[in-house]
Specification:
four-stranded antiparallel beta sheet, 302 residues, 30 strands, 49% strand
Length: 302
């Protein structure tokens, strides 16, 4: 998933006086070179990286750099292997692009280095098994790989790596899901919804990255898949996704202290499978799908 996810930074999140404060979502004037979905999206200083993904023409290896201040969109490199539905997270000065695939799920782990307006990528290692449709998050010097699977079957194993080469099993999800929305808050990683083997889920699962404890801690107000989670202003937000077979416009805020969610904003249109990067006080949702078409748009959430 461009699930992904993948850009949820380590942060503290909890009950605050503005826990249910409204956010605004604005469609920006910048556009991607072509409609794109299921990419890894990452913050790189004041800019946004878009790595891989799928276009109407197929899976791409292109790496884009977006400058929200100027509105420029530049091709700056290529992945070692074209993938969509991969997951990504920072590790040191590199970005890991984990798994994903084209027609089949892949186990390949790529590392991406960006210097100025140039990006290079190489194969760093491999997962214990192919995996797509999940997420990767950076927590305490490690990258955790959560959710996803292959052949339509979710993988419950939570993997951890410190180098992108060696992976250990940290825990097993009580509810294995593909396409969850994922965010890391401090030492906890939260998975929101996702698709089980049989049906979409409304479960909120929490992983303690320190102890490996994992459990269902709350429920969303409805089953949700292919949404995008991120931390903005100390709050965990969940945007868009598929609800009852239709792309959602809702932006939800989740309070870990109470387990409650509340609608705090609306996207300009229903979006699923968007990637997200947080730069300063703004989250940028990049591309995605409406259920019937791919998008070339960028949405700013503040």
């Amino acid at each position: 998933m461009g699930s992904g996810d993948t850009s949820a930074a380590n942060a503290s999140a909890g009950t605050t006086p503005g826990a249910n404060a409204r956010v605004t979502a604005t469609l920006l004037s910048m556009h991607l070179p072509s409609p794109l979905s299921r990419a890894v999206v990452a913050a790189s200083g004041a800019e946004v990286l878009v790595l891989g993904g799928v276009t109407p023409s197929g899976t791409t290896a292109t790496i884009l750099q977006l400058n929200p201040a100027t509105g420029s969109v530049t091709r700056i490199g290529r992945l070692a292997s074209a993938v969509h539905d991969a997951s990504g997270a920072p590790l040191g000065h590199l970005w890991l692009v984990v798994g994903g695939g084209r027609t089949l799920a892949s186990a390949v782990v790529q590392d991406v280095s960006v210097v100025g307006a140039s990006a290079s990528a190489s194969v760093a290692g491999a997962l214990p098994a192919p995996r797509a449709d999940g997420a990767a998050v950076a927590v305490g010097g490690e990258v955790l790989v959560v959710g996803g699977g292959r052949g339509g079957v979710p993988d419950p194993n939570v993997l951890a790596t410190r180098d992108g080469v060696s992976f250990t099993s940290l825990a097993r999800l009580p509810l294995a899901v593909r396409y969850p929305a994922v965010a890391a808050a401090g030492s906890r990683v939260y998975l929101f919804g996702g698709a089980t083997t049989g049906a979409p889920s409304n479960a909120i699962q929490a992983i303690d990255a320190t102890t490996g404890d994992v459990r269902v801690v709350a429920r969303l107000p409805y089953a949700l898949t292919q949404a995008t989670a991120f931390i903005l202003g100390g709050r965990i937000l969940i945007a868009g996704g598929m609800r009852a077979g239709r792309p959602s416009t809702a932006i939800l805020a989740f309070d870990p202290a109470t387990g409650r969610t509340a609608v705090v904003g609306r996207l300009p249109e229903g979006v699923e499978d968007a990637g997200v990067a947080v730069v300063g006080d703004t989250a940028y949702l990049v591309g995605g799908e409406t259920g019937s078409a791919f998008l070339d748009t960028v949405i700013a959430v503040r």
